[in-house]
Amino acid sequence: MPKIALCIGVVILVGFVAYLALNSEKVEEKATALEDVQIAEDTAATTDRNLLVASENSEAQQVDSSTQTPKAAANKDNATKYQDQPPFPPPPPPVTSKQTQPTIEDQHFSQQGGSAQSNSDEPPLRLKGIGVNFEDFKFTKAKLQFDRLFMGFGFVIPGSSSSSGNDKSNPQPTYVVPLGTPVRSLVDGVVAAIPTLWSGDVSIQVTADGKMQKWIYETEHLVNPKVAVGDKVVAGQIIGEVGSFGNGDPPGYGAVEIGLLRGGQVPEHVCPFAYLDDSIREATFANMRNLFQSWEEYVGDQSLYTETEIPGCLSLQAIEG
């Protein structure tokens, strides 16, 4: 009996173990199945999310496309339009022109008093005229004191005709022209003074700003002045007439002098023709050479005028007085 009971116990134990093993496999299979279901659910959820995002992106792109389409189309049209046109030309180079002296307003009236520039070692204004017109020179066979209608800067006045009795270099170019010939301003400026000269006529003195400065532009031996102190003048403007101061001129003729005076402890003149404005320089020099040559041919004397570096300037050195 004990053996039988033992055998029965063993059988029951083996059966129980087999039951446990079978249930364990089912549990594992069930767990595996549950795990597979969970993975499938996760995958489906992920897919749904991806589809949702894709849908949202698609809608956003459609909205953006509907918003941007006109601009994009316009850009496309513009690109096509400009492809059919030639390229824009480069900007033109800066215009360069011959440098000329600034106007009196730009150069001086914008400065207080204008004295800074007027006191420099260079004249503040360039001559835009020589005081008379070239057609004002009227040839005559009458006897002239120096056999010339035009005496340049530095022309030597013999002692017999000078106030000192010694030879003297003329500091002011002198023209012999008919009485009453209009005398014109040399520069754009302001009348600073009109003193009466020893000969009873006047000198009209012009400066950059109407004050007595280091540089003074002179026209002397005028009668019937047409301007007053403080008047603004422009080059070529008639400021007076040629008078006669008893200098041996022939009947009906007088003389006018022009000067460029540099003040200082010892005042001195410089050749005004060395400071002509660019706008008149070449034409003025050509007219001077023509005048000299024509006069020499007229009187039959080829020795009256000497060719110089600057026509009208027999010297480039300053002359005292």
Write up what this structure looks like:
This is M23ase beta-sheet core domain-containing protein. Pfam families: Peptidase_M23 (PF01551). It comes from Candidatus Kaiserbacteria bacterium RIFCSPHIGHO2_01_FULL_53_29. By secondary structure, the chain is α+β, with helices and mostly antiparallel strands. It has two domains: 85 residues; 208 residues, Glucose Permease (Domain IIA), CATH 2.70.70. The chain has four helices and 13 strands. The strands form two sheets. Strands 1, 4, 5, 6, 7, 8, 9, 10, 11, 12 and 13 form an eleven-stranded antiparallel beta sheet that branches. The longest helix has 82 residues. The radius of gyration is 54 Å and the shape is elongated.
Defining traits:
321 residues, Dup_hybrid_motif, Glucose Permease (Domain IIA), single chain, 11-stranded antiparallel sheet, two-stranded antiparallel ribbon, alpha+beta
